[in-house]
Design goal:
The protein contains two helices and no strands. By secondary structure, it is mainly alpha-helical.
């Protein structure tokens, strides 16, 4: 296990997933809602 991962968390090795999570974290820190696949589904209703 990577030493950079908190206990009971899994390391994410996919760079695309890491990039999406980073962008969502920055959005939340900036006061915006994170983007998810659910936002696209709910927008169609």
């Amino acid at each position: 296990m990577s030493p950079h991962v908190a206990p009971r968390h899994l390391a994410e090795h996919d760079l695309l997933i890491q990039h999406i999570r980073l962008k969502n974290t920055l959005r939340v820190m900036g006061g915006e809602a994170p983007l998810t696949h659910l936002s696209e589904i709910l927008a169609d209703r």
